[in-house]
């Protein structure tokens, strides 16, 4: 039977998460419609293949294709879509899930409107551990709107004014295959969205059919997280370039050769607003990814343009970003030496720093007092006072003071009290 719906799942080295994802798709596979699942494995080296084999034995509508080595996320996505056979296709990240009734609602809409080539729907950031919604991405967007080949400028204005991310969608396969494109620094989903609008109508719908599992079940753990790894793209040149390309193509399709001067200010201000509007979110995402130094950099930019915020928030910034960034810097300093056997903590009154390294950098040797080897060590003092009291401070080139590091990564003038640390 020719499938009506193809669910495309690119995957790589997340076998247990993929297993959970396929379990969650069982309801869609048994919805009464012809549904297939197309998996593209990017050369996984774990037990991904055995997970796929087990699910294929239970459901023949699961098909899988595999690269011999990792060829990057875009090739993996292309492979899944290229092998799909359904009239309508959509992608599911292997660590996310779908809302079946809403999928079927959108597919029914597209069946009834043959000129509709894509529905870009809102999606839910989901805490799967607690079973609750964290937030959505379309903001206060309430009504479905659509744009076609004759609405290029309206589409560009809509994207600049409302900025609904055209990332999660259900597509008419024939149109999607025509809109596939390789890209350089641009974000592919913006260019794909605009190319689709040249082939038919694209709709933006606030009804979500997709849950992004921001927090996983306790027994699952990500080894890869592309969205987090690419978070800087959403506040930097990649997003700026994508929006600028979209505006230029919209102007050209409307018969305008370049951006008129009176519109340039609006476009520039809109792009800056969009970039700055995501700063706080990307700061949080950098911290989730244990990149506290990156979180500090993003929080500084946000503070420059939007101010420090309430006193309690700035105090929390020190504890959540600046202090962990300083400890991350200790780890990076340790890795930068070829002859250092471990880290010697001096002047600390508690085990909090030891516990931090045990949790986030468990392979880094933290040397017990008095157990230092004859070779070089990286000495880390709590503050200037404990350094002054140390009769054997060691090699100055292998000496760090946590208080100094916190000052290097400070976000505001708010000081953190190291007493008791």
Rg over CA atoms, rounded to whole Å, is: 25 Å
Give the end-to-end Cα distance, rounded to a whole number of Å: 66 Å
Reported by name, the CATH topology of the largest domain is Spore Coat Polysaccharide Biosynthesis Protein SpsA, Chain A
Summed up, the helix count is: 17
Number of strands: 16
State the main characteristics.
globular, about 45% helix, 4-stranded mixed sheet, about 425 residues, alpha/beta, 8-stranded mixed sheet, 17 helices, Spore Coat Polysaccharide Biosynthesis Protein SpsA, Chain A
How would you describe what is shown here?
The chain is an alpha/beta fold and 421 residues long. The protein has 2 domains: 5-224, Alpha-Beta Complex (Spore Coat Polysaccharide Biosynthesis Protein SpsA, Chain A), CATH 3.90.550.10; 301-408, no CATH class. It has 17 helices and 16 strands. The chain has helices at 15-24, 26-29, 48-58, 73-83, 100-112, 152-162, 173-179, 188-199, 226-229, 237-253, 261-277, 279-288, 292-306, 311-335, 352-360, 384-388, 402-408, and strands at 5-11, 35-41, 62-66, 88-91, 97-98, 116-121, 124-127, 132-136, 145-147, 169-172, 201-205, 210-215, 340-346, 366-367, 376-381, 399-401. The strands form 3 sheets. An 8-stranded mixed sheet has the order 3-2-1-4-10-6-11-9, sandwiched between helices. Strand 15 (376-381), helix 16 (384-388) and strand 16 form a beta-alpha-beta unit. Helix 12 runs antiparallel to helix 13. The model has no long low-confidence stretch (mean pLDDT 89).
């Amino acid at each position: 039977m020719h499938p009506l719906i193809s669910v495309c799942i690119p995957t790589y080295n997340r076998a247990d998460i993929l297993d959970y994802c396929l379990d969650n798709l069982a309801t869609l596979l048994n919805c009464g419609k012809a549904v297939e699942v197309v998996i593209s494995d990017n050369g996984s080296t774990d037990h991904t293949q055995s997970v796929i084999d087990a699910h294929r034995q239970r459901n023949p509508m699961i098909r899988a294709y595999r690269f011999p080595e990792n060829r990057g996320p875009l090739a993996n996505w292309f492979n899944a879509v290229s092998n799909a056979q359904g009239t309508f296709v959509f992608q599911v990240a292997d660590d996310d899930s779908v809302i079946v009734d809403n999928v079927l609602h959108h597919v029914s809409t597209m069946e009834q409107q043959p000129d509709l080539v894509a529905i870009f729907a809102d999606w839910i950031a989901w805490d799967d551990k607690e079973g609750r919604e964290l937030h959505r991405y379309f903001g206060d967007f309430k009504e479905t709107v659509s744009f076609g080949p004759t609405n290029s400028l309206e589409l560009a204005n809509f994207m600049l004014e409302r900025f609904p991310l055209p990332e999660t969608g259900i597509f008419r396969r024939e149109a999607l295959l025509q809109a596939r494109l390789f890209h350089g620094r641009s974000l592919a989903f913006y260019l794909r969205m605009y190319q689709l609008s040249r082939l038919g109508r694209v709709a933006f719908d606030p009804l979500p059919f997709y849950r992004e599992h921001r927090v996983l079940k306790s027994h699952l753990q990500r080894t890869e997280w592309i969205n987090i790894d690419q978070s800087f793209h959403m506040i930097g040149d990649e997003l700026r370039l994508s929006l600028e390309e979209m505006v230029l193509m919209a102007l050209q399709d409307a018969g305008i050769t370049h951006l008129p001067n009176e519109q340039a200010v609006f476009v520039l201000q809109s792009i800056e607003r969009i970039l700055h509007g995501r700063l706080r979110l990307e700061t949080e995402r950098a911290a989730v990814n244990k990149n506290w130094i990156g979180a500090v950099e993003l929080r500084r930019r946000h503070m420059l343009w939007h101010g420090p915020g309430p006193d309690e928030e700035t105090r929390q910034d020190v504890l959540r970003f600046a202090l962990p960034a300083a400890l991350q810097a200790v780890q990076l300093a340790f890795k930068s030496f070829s002859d250092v056997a471990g880290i010697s903590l001096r002047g600390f009154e508690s085990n909090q720093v030891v516990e931090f390294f045990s949790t986030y950098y468990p392979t880094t040797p933290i040397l017990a007092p008095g157990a230092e080897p004859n070779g070089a060590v990286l000495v880390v003092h709590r503050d200037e006072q404990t350094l002054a009291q140390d009769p054997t401070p060691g090699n100055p080139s292998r000496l760090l003071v946590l208080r100094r590091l916190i000052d290097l990564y400070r976000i505001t003038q708010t000081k953190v009290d190291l007493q008791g640390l």
